[in-house]
Write a structure and sequence with these properties.
The protein has 528 residues and is mostly helical. The chain contains 18 helices and two strands. 41% of the residues are buried.
Length: 528
């Protein structure tokens, strides 16, 4: 009896049953065919024992009892889930309420649109002004070095978005806090990123309003009424348009506007240099750098010019925000589509910046006015170029400023709503969100009217905000990725970072010197 009882226990997983035996589920979810039934003979226990099926291995898919099958399926499903989710990313529930991280269905196309919209702007039209102080050789060399440098730091920021497993750094300040510490990170990154967002928005109101005024003058011509709108009123018109467009809820929802901004940026940049090159150059043109009374003055003027070049490369304060709109899993991390989109965007950015700088300097030389390419075209060829072409160029600039205002304002909207949701523990209603954006638009207008000279501080502001683009990413790579000490990667990033800080100080000094030497018309509440 003991022997028979032991045999039955051993054969439980494979004891032949009736024809209604259920099919066995394999770990892949497929049904395995039922085993053929064997007829036991009257030989008794010996025949039954020989006909019984015995698993050859305990890890075989056939060794699945009614108890083991659900457990196996749970483990397999859990494995697939972990592969999809990745490294168990800790998501902040508040992120689902904020405009930057509210929608995570971005892709490489959206990344290209956003980067191109943020990367090309009115600052590019000032590049020939820098060339007038640097000349051909130093101008092209500095522009090329700056482009390659910022392209590397862009790649660094894309890789650092998920530098720590289980954490996504959705904002530039968050990454700075993780690298430098909670307090030091805020001190180092908060001011330049706030200026690059809110300050750019204010400058866009000034440029957009003034360009709308010029567009109206070109289109209307001598038929204009005797009482045209003042500059402040044009600022108000432009701000009102910005506020209407800002009602789009989140960063992904303005992808269409970013596409419009990207297309208009490429178009007007091409039109500006093509129209300039196609016209006859001024007879007194010269390509010698502007002569200044002393070597010290020339040095500071060159530093200010380098600050203008640095200021032309913008948008790094938005890289992490753009990448945070994309889904990220272990198999499909967000840095892959982000880098694809960024490469396409910065190819077109190079196609915009280099022709504008080189073509503009070739067309006007050291006669380039401080207002940049639009001012030069209007001053030298206002009567030579067809009014229709000029009007189209100015209108494209207006459209680009409207689109750029949205993407540069999104971090500020995000900060407003983060403060609200952290206090109330609930998402912003439509009316609260709309109120924040109306308030921000008119505050930016007030600052622009109160300080209309902000757009003439390109050199100084380029120096102050340079670490965000050229220095901080290198430091953060070393502190978070921790490459081997004294390796090439370690030396390379430390040297680039400290060079960026040194250039920032030097360019800021050059900008201050330029303001002191040339004078700054501090016309508060008196826009021209």
């Amino acid at each position: 009896m003991e022997e028979r009882h032991e045999t039955e226990v051993v054969s439980i997983p494979a004891t032949p049953r009736a024809n209604s035996t259920p099919e066995i589920l394999t770990p892949t979810g497929q049904r395995s065919p039922p085993r053929p039934m064997t007829t036991t003979t009257t030989a008794g226990h010996a025949g039954a024992k020989s006909a019984a099926w015995t698993p050859s291995s305990f890890i075989s898919p056939r060794f699945l009892s009614p108890i083991g099958t659900p457990m196996k399926r749970v483990l397999i499903n859990m494995k697939g889930y972990l592969e999809e989710v990745g490294h168990l990313t800790k998501l902040n529930p508040q992120d689902a309420w904020l405009p930057i991280t509210e929608s995570r269905n971005g892709n490489a196309h959206y990344a290209a649109f956003h980067n191109l919209n943020a990367g090309v702007g009115f600052q590019a039209l000032l590049l020939p002004v820098a060339f007038s102080f640097l000349g051909w050789g130093w101008g092209i060399l500095s522009l090329t070095v700056a482009y390659c440098w910022q392209l590397y730091t862009l790649w660094v920021l894309v890789q650092l978005h998920e530098a720590v497993p289980g954490r996504r750094y959705n904002r530039y300040v968050e990454l700075a806090q993780a690298a430098f510490g909670e307090k030091l990170g805020v001190w180092l990154a908060l001011f330049p990123t706030v200026y690059l967002s809110a300050g750019n928005a204010t400058a866009l109101i000034l440029v957009g309003g003034e360009t709308m005024k010029l567009f109206f003058q070109i289109v209307c011509g001598p038929l204009c009424s005797s009482n045209p709108l003042t500059t402040v009123e044009w600022y108000l018109v432009f701000t009102s348009l910005c506020i209407v467009l800002s009602q789009l809820p989140n960063l992904n929802s303005i992808a269409g506007l970013s596409l419009v901004g990207a297309v208009t940026a490429i178009t007007y940049s091409t039109m500006v240099w093509v129209l300039s090159v196609s016209q006859q150059r001024p007879p007194q043109i010269s390509y010698q750098p502007l002569s200044l009374p002393s070597a010290t003055a020339s040095l500071f003027a060159s530093l200010n010019a380098l600050g203008i070049i640095a200021f032309a490369f913008r948008g790094h304060n938005l890289i992490l925000e753009i990448q945070s709109t994309m889904p990220s899993t272990f198999k499909h991390p967000a840095h892959v589509p982000m880098w694809k989109g960024a490469k396409v965007a910065y190819f077109f950015i190079a196609m915009c910046l280099f022709p504008v700088a080189i073509g503009g300097y070739w067309a006007y030389g050291n006669l380039m006015p401080s207002g940049g390419m639009l001012a030069a075209i209007y001053a030298f060829h206002g009567h030579d170029i067809a009014r229709g072409l000029l009007a189209i160029a100015f209108l494209l600039v207006v459209f680009n400023c409207l689109s750029s205002f949205q993407i540069y304002s999104m971090p500020v909207f995000d900060s407003f709503e983060a403060s609200y949701t952290s206090r109330t523990n609930r998402p912003c209603s439509v009316w609260v969100r709309s109120g924040f954006r109306v308030f921000y638009g008119f505050i930016s207008l007030l600052i622009g009217v109160a300080f209309p000279f902000l757009s003439s501080l390109a050199g100084l502001l380029g120096g102050l905000t340079l670490p965000v683009t050229f220095a901080y990413p290198c430091f953060m790579w070393v502190l978070l990725k921790q490459p081997p000490k004294y390796s090439f990667n370690w030396y390379f990033n430390w040297i680039l970072g400290w060079l960026g800080i040194a250039f920032s100080v030097a360019f800021s000094i050059g900008g201050i010197w330029s303001i002191v030497t040339n004078g700054l018309k501090l016309k508060f509440f008196k826009p021209s």
